[in-house]
Design goal:
The complex is a heterodimer of chains A (107) and B (541). By secondary structure, chain A is α+β, with helices and mostly antiparallel strands. Chain A is built from four helices and four strands, in the order βαββαβαα. In chain A, the strands form two sheets. In chain A, strands 1-4 form a two-stranded antiparallel sheet. In chain A, strands 2-3 form a two-stranded antiparallel ribbon. Chain A starts with a strand and ends with a helix. Chain B has 14 helices and 18 strands. In chain B, the strands form four sheets. In chain B, strands 1, 2, 5, 6, 7, 8, 15 and 16 form an eight-stranded mixed β-sheet that branches. Classes of the chains: A alpha+beta (107), B alpha+beta (541). The structure holds flavin-adenine dinucleotide and iron/sulfur cluster (2 copies). Chain B: Pfam families: FAD_binding_2 (PF00890), Succ_DH_flav_C (PF02910).
């Protein structure tokens, strides 16, 4: 479940407000969007992929957030998923890494 | 019936084709329709590109090279699993169209991995990448996309043909209406608010809207897909549990428990206590492949500090309902038309029995169906939409939650809880019995009667009210069909009729809202080389 927005990283671009499929965020006039409807979060991690600043952290638990006070408490640095799928400039080569064929053909 | 609209129309558009839902089926439909020169609007409940079952996940897809032997083998190999209800001619069409579509995707920039000789490998798609590209392709072809704009009801003309839809814009707080020549329902399956990845928006809204306009369903008994996930997580990937050892609380191996062919053993154990898994049968090379195949599978584990290959972790089964089931809107011809003029269905909203009978197993068929049915429906809707006369008089076809039919509105949260309570429990939906199904139907039927005799929901509640009404309706088509199929076939499993009955190798049509009726239709003729279902065969889970 969506856990936190890092005020230090967020530029207030509101991309996450548009991209979240369940409309969890609400824009604020100044500063980061607010997590307005946390209970509607479907733990899909898509907001992390669309945030250009790696300012969001989705807790792995689907039922409830972990209760982290700040990004410093997150078990892993922010932005690991975006890097893994190749959506950061430095990791773009990962976009065409997909070994599903090897998994599917295994006996 | 007094009309009451949910919200004032903030946006009023006219076009040839309106597509409801922006997953793979909807985006392919919109893209294809727009390429014929039609004006196309696509409305999604969430954000087209991130919403639905495909976007957040990795998807294997039924892609087979056009070698007749390979194609025939691919089709035949799945027949027993599906209870011999699939149709070989439809399967061949889907393989052909999916093949062409995936080549087109590659040409338009999808970054397929390549083999040692540099040839693209096209058997899987990464959801975020795939759906970001589909949004771009649809937009590039001129499709007008309305995000965060759930449809609430269809519009019909004087003759009963579907002629558009109406909904709300939840980020603007107003409504939309699109007057269209034809409508494609691509709103996905119904997963009943389970925690399965990407399924929150999938509450059967399109099923309800289509039924209100007169459409019917096929295969709704094949609607009890359950997928394995870590019990704290949303990410389901049953395939990876092929490498799991399943244990009980004490660490003892559970005999017979397996991701395929032993999932019911897991369900039985979960009814009594916790079940644990460890993917300890994957060697180092396979571990690396799994990570490279599906990074999102590992997110929850990495973030919880669990190594799924060496640590035991508790698992659960998330209901995926018709999303990885096969039932949905009945298709009447090769254009994916429903029985209502002007209304087409694609993807998980439509029945997938045509290509996989009563079971989808490890997937790939549903993804191929979404692509193919989307392309066919989009093209046919554009042809239809261009031919209809101008100046039709339209009215909303919606019922429960929209019409002034009672003194008070119903409580959407409570109505949703009631449905969930009837469809999530294994004892009801996984292990079906006449007694259990009948008891559930009593509650669901009376809930439908109550919802359809209520006052309209107000603006802030109307989406949740329609979702609850839709789930109620879908559950009724499911369970009436399940009651009528007094055998076990495909994923439909009756405890009181544990074997397949060769006399029931037919399809079931479900229809109606006030009263639900179920009727039999013959399945495609059994091919000479197909083996008829023997007792117990074709029950794959
Ligand atoms: C975790 C998971 C893994 C899967 N893996 C595989 C796999 O490996 N292979 C495979 O073949 N299949 C797989 N499937 C199934 C596959 O994801 C679906 O078959 C596919 O997504 C269907 O596409 P669709 O476009 O019909 O529906 P979806 O992708 O679900 O999209 C439906 C869209 O409709 C929108 N919508 C809903 N209601 C409304 C409304 N009222 N108004 C407007 N829009 C609305 C939703 O927001 C959503 O965007 C998987 C499913 C899940 C859940
Ligand atoms: S997308 Fe990221 S940077 Fe932009 S508003 Fe959201 S959290 Fe802030
Ligand atoms: S995890 Fe998904 S549902 Fe939750 S806030 Fe992020 S995008 Fe929205």
């Amino acid at each position: 479940m969506i856990e936190l927005i890092s005020a230090a990283r967020c530029t207030g671009c509101n991309i996450c407000v548009a991209a979240c499929p369940t409309n969890v965020f609400a824009p604020s006039l100044s500063g980061p969007p607010v997590i307005a409807r946390q209970a509607d979060c479907q733990t899909c991690f898509m907001c992390e992929l669309y945030c250009p600043e790696d300012a969001l952290y989705v807790a792995p638990t689907a039922g409830a957030p972990l209760g982290l006070a700040s990004e410093a408490d997150a078990p892993l640095p922010l932005g690991t998923y975006r890097a893994a799928i190749g959506w950061t400039p430095a990791t773009a080569a990962n976009r065409s890494v997909d070994a599903m064929h090897a998994v599917l053909s295994a006996k | 019936m007094g009309f009451s609209s949910s919200a004032p129309s903030g946006l009023h558009l006219t076009c040839e084709v309106l597509v409801l839902g922006g997953g793979p089926a909807g985006t392919w439909a919109a893209f294809q329709a727009a390429r014929t020169g039609a004006r196309v609007v696509l409305a999604d409940k969430g954000f087209c590109g991130t919403s639905g079952a495909t976007a957040p996940s990795g998807t294997s897809i039924w892609y087979v090279e056009p070698d007749p032997k390979l194609r025939a083998a691919a089709i035949v190999s799945r027949e027993a699993l599906g209870g011999f209800l699939a149709d070989r001619a439809w399967s061949a069409r889907v393989l052909e169209t999916t093949h062409a579509a995936l080549h087109e995707l590659g040409a338009r920039g999808y970054p397929f991995p390549v083999d040692g000789a540099g040839n693209p490998i096209r058997v899987s798609l990464q959801g975020p990448e795939y759906m970001r590209l589909m949004r771009k392709l649809a937009k590039g072809a001129g499709v007008r996309i309305l995000d965060h704009s759930p449809a609430l009801e269809l519009l019909v003309d004087e003759a009963g043909a579907v002629a558009g839809a109406r909904g709300i814009r939840r980020q603007q707080g107003d409504g939309w209406q699109v007057d269209a020549g034809a409508v494609v329902i691509a709103t996905g399956g119904c997963a009943f608010l389970s925690r399965a990845l990407g399924c929150t928006a999938l509450t059967g809204d399109g099923h309800l809207m289509a039924a209100e306009a007169g459409a019917d369903f096929s295969g709704m008994e094949f609607s009890n897909a359950y997928a394995i996930a870590a019990d704290f997580a949303s990410v389901t990937k049953t395939l990876f549990f092929k490498w799991a050892t399943f244990t009980d609380e004490a660490g003892e191996v559970i005999p017979g428990a397996a991701s395929n062919g032993g999932r019911s053993v897991i369900a039985r154990h979960l009814q009594k206590g916790r079940v644990f898994a460890r993917l300890d049968r994957a060697d180092a090379a396979m571990q690396a492949n799994m990570r490279a195949a599906q990074p999102n599978f590992f997110l929850p584990f990495d973030r919880m500090g669990i190594d799924p290959f060496t640590d035991r972790f508790p698992i659960t089964l998330h209901l995926e309902g018709t999303v990885r089931g096969t039932g949905g809107l009945r298709i009447v011809d090769e254009t994916c038309a429903t029985r209502v003029p002007g209304l087409y269905a694609a993807g998980d909203a439509a029945t997938r029995e045509l290509i996989c009978g009563g079971f989808t197993g490890g997937g790939s068929h549903n993804a191929a169906w979404a692509v193919s049915s989307g392309r066919w429906a989009g093209r046919a809707a554009a042809d239809f939409g261009r031919r209809v006369p101008n100046g039709r008089v339209r009215r909303g076809a919606g019922t429960a939650g929209l019409r002034d039919a009672g003194a008070r509105p119903f409580d959407p949260a409570e109505a949703a809880r009631t449905v969930v309570g009837e469809v999530h429990p294994f004892a009801r939906n996984y292990f079906r019995t006449e007694e259990g199904l009948t008891r559930s139907l009593d509650r669901l039927d009376s809930q439908w009667a109550r919802l359809s005799a209520s006052a309209p929901a107000d603006g802030t509640n109307v989406l949740r009210a329609r979702e609850a009404a839709a789930m109620t309706a879908v559950a009724r088509w499911m369970y009436r069909s399940a009651l009528a199929r007094t055998e076990s076939r495909g994923m439909h499993r009756r405890i009181d009729h544990a074997a397949a009955d060769p006399a029931q190798r037919h399809l079931l049509t479900a229809a109606g809202l006030a009263e639900v009726s179920v009727a039999q239709r013959p399945a495609a003729a059994l091919a000479a080389d197909a083996v008829e279902t023997r007792a117990g065969e074709g029950i794959a889970a």
